[in-house]
Amino acid sequence: MATGVSEPWCTDPLTERPWPAREPWWRIDIRSEARLSDVKHVWEAARHRDLVVLARAARLDPAGPWLDRLACLLRSWCEQSPPEQGVNWYSSLELALRAIAWNQILVLAGERLPRDVVTAMERLLLASARHLMVELPYTLSSMRNNHLLGDALGLIVLSRMFPTERRATWWARTGEKMFAAQQRRHFAPDGRMIEDSLSYHRFVLEMLIVRVMLGGAPADVQRDLHAASLHLARLGVFDGDVPQYGDWDEGRVLASSGDPLDVAGSVALGLMLCGERVPPRWYADFDELAWYAPVPPEETAPGAAAPITYTRPEATTSGGIARVERGPWRVWFKVDSGPSHGHADLTSVWIKHGGTWLIADPGTGAYNGPLEIRNGLRTSAAHPVRRPDGRDQLVPHRAFRWLNTGRGYLGPPLVLPDRTIVFGWHDAYARGQRPVRVGRAVVVATDYVAIVEFADPPGTAKCWSLTIPLHPDVTVENNTLIAGESTLELFGLDGHTAVRGRKTPFAGWHSRTYGHWEPATWITAESRADTAVWGLGTVPGSLTEPTALDGLRFEVNWDSAGACLVVTHIASGEVHHVRAPQ
Fold first, then answer.
1. Long-range own/partner contacts, residues 393-398 (CB < 8 A, 24 or more apart)
2. Which of 12, 322, 355, 448 is most open to solvent, judged by the fewest CB atoms within 10 Å of its CB?
3. CA dihedral 189, 193, 197, 198 (to 10 degrees)
């Protein structure tokens, strides 16, 4: 985009109009309906990760045009962005991320950059440190999430860049204390984070990576980095794209020339920094390894350990999400949620068949646009979940918050010779005058994927609503899904309807990445039954009973401590139990 290249750094790429350039940042309106635009776009340009890539080019090709272009862009930035003036000084996190990028630029090309440019950069970096310290009360009171971690990391980086500066020790001590305190709140032992989002998981994982690369990191930083990396590895990031659950905005700390939708490179680097020996070919596949990791050891070196492999079991669970592979199917079942950047998607089921997305997360759209679009993609009506009497799992409040919470509970996978079953339930509707707990079992066989729905207590809801958001490349005709040349039957959703690209009310859309959305088919269905079965593919026999499927009977025993799925083989009487405790 033109921002910073052929237009000033304050230019909004959506409207092609400038944000106030010489106005104190605290006087600029970025929140109200009267704001110029979505500030996210100009902030993303000002993080300067693309300038890190330009510095790499200058390092690799000293005789090329890269250094002059880099110097020109940095000089224009310094001239146009005096301390505390303009929208790019509004957010402390943006200053911290820019400091991390500039640190890399100075290491890669600082000795060859014009002296006036380096001096101007150093002046603004010191001003950034002062800003971060002055804004600490707001950060500590209002930003107990990735912002606090990022601001703390920025102070640590700046203290390393200017070790002789009078206040450097103070910056380092403050940053380390903030980072450690938020880290204790942020991470769970299983690798999940408080931010219920694939994008923000990568974002914070990269903060841990930077802290480890700086050296002297406490042992628990590497511990959490390892767990967070393994969590995404278990979800299948090395096998292709995974569901884009929660808020997605391509936010990064590291610089990469690769696909911004691919999170695997960050995971590979995280594993490598924690002592895992990754396959040597990954250094060619992932910018993150090529630029940030030490040189890989020779495969034939005496005593060299074999590279780690990621051959996952047929079914695995991690951080409240189950992943099942059987035959042509790859299925994710997300049961739990988190307090930050998540969507109202408890018990969502996302499905690939033969590597092609069928049921997909609808994405994010944008944070700062019209609320009907923001909420239209993050509430339960946009996700493959059941809703009693049209209620939403979480009630939205402004652009990022919810008025209530919900928790989900996932049991271990039940792997049978001819199918795999996962079960979970949530309490998001256990409030108000008609509280109800909602359960769901997902059955994956070679020929079908089936979802069995449950509710406790029965009879609470007069009507259950269900939305099934399809990938934009998938359409539906009657009871047949069409994906390219492949077709699959849809069962158990009699009388369903479909909507695609409807503006009012907003429905039938898919957002592949931040700021973009396109028409996609959403199937909607309603039922009065508390227990129901629906799915994709071909199920042997008939679906005459709501609790029976392909020779198995399903029921759930509910109690105050949780729920237990009871699976009975009708012919033999064999019984299996899947417990999902609260």
1. 393/344, 393/345, 393/346, 393/426, 393/428, 393/429, 394/337, 394/344, 394/428, 396/344, 396/371, 398/371
2. 355
3. -50
Task: Identify the CA nearest to 452 among candidates 521, 555, 362, 317.
Answer: 555
Q: CB-based burial of residue 262 (10 Å sphere; 0-12 exposed, 13-18 middle, 19+ buried)? A: middle
Pair of tokens at residue 432: 């108000």
d(CA 74, CA 69): 9
In terms of pTM, does the model score above 0.85? Answer: yes
DSSP 531: S
Q: Mean pLDDT over residues 326-352, rounded?
A: 97
Encoded amino acid at 296, one letter: P
- At residue 500, the 3 state secondary structure works out as strand
pLDDT at 299: 59
| Backbone torsions φ then ψ of 49, nearest 5 degrees | -65, -30
Whether 332 contacts 349, CB under 8 Å = yes
Give the Cα separation of 242 and 197 in Å (integer): 12
Count CB-CB contacts under 10 A for residue 489.
Answer: 14
| Structure token pair of residue 312 | 């996952």
For the stretch 457-477, pLDDT in tens is 999 999 999 999 999 999 999
Q: Cβ contacts of residue 424 below 8 Å, gap of 6+?
A: 322, 333, 335, 336, 347, 408, 409, 410, 411, 439, 440, 580
Location of structure tokens 């450097």:
168
SS3 assignment, position 148? helix
375: nearest Cα among 501, 505, 465, 500: 505
